[in-house]
């Protein structure tokens, strides 16, 4: 929106407005805009949620240390969504189809999470949105996105699998691209949702991943950098840097209130939206494998739940003291801040390893 305005001003009044055509500048402004929105709107949203008693309900079989969290306002993920969407609409090139794809993915999954949170926290339905309907809604959105990207692909590389550490080695996926994109988007969404169990545990890795994916989007959408680094060039995907920057700003703004001890939780509204947005960007920049590496914490949390359920159903025994994995470490005696910070550190290491694939080819 503001990009269009500055282009008009550059043509009619002062050519200096052409500086806003640079993605890097708009990314910085997008970060600051989303951060500012989150910091300004956050206190009002928290008070609103408290007034209307949209409070966290602690599971009776969860760690006893979590009892103190009961009554903390939830559905704060709406703050993240508002900050991301507004900042992106202000600073991104709205003629770019990738921007609308990732916005739709983020908002749609956020909407599914909002319905779940609303049923649990406002209507008092402890089950929220049933697992069957929740998965059906996620699948409908994920498959729609995957199919749309497949049929609108303009170059073969947009539907090919890129293998890290190998220059110019790609594998044509054909219709399997739809399956891969679906699983990355839906799987990422639910993985972040499972990780969101401690103060700040999910939001900081999301911020780090958003920053890393911004780098991938920039170099993938820049023909010169793509050629230099030996990665496939995808025209137009560089505009996703603005969305990633908005996600980083919104995430940092939310972390201001979500840091231990949290004043607000994101709920499914935020976790499903963030996971879907990150997964969609990974698909668009053709870095699904590298994203799986960088999002290792989310993957570990998901695998721990799968292993726990499978082990209990097959043998009647549990592998972990409690799943997801962060609860296991809590029950081992780790203080909550220690679990959070160590998971953050692991994410930093994994993100750096992921970024190293840009050069190690």
Plain-language structure description:
- This protein has 361 residues and is mainly α.
- It is built from 14 helices and two strands.
- It has helices at 2-12, 23-51, 77-91, 97-122, 131-151, 176-195, 203-220, 223-229, 240-258, 267-284, 288-294, 296-315, 325-331, 336-356; strands at 160-162, 170-172.
- The chain has a two-stranded antiparallel sheet with strand order 1-2.
- β1 (160-162) and β2 form a beta hairpin.
- The protein starts with a helix and ends in a 5-residue tail after the last helix.
Radius of gyration over all CA atoms, rounded: 20 Å
**Order of neighbouring strands in the sheet with most strands:** 1-2
Distance between the amino and carboxyl termini: 38 Å
Count of DSSP-assigned helices: 14
- State which percent range the strand residues make up: under 5%
**SSE ordering:** HHHHHEEHHHHHHHHH
| Domain count | 1
Query: Ranges with pLDDT <50 over ≥5 residues?
Result: none
Helix amount: 55-70%
* β-strand number: 2
What structural class results from the helix and strand content?
A: mainly alpha
* Main β sheet profile: 2 strands, antiparallel
Question: Which overall shape is indicated by the principal axes computed on the Cα atoms?
Answer: globular
Instruction: Write down the overall mean pLDDT.
Output: 91
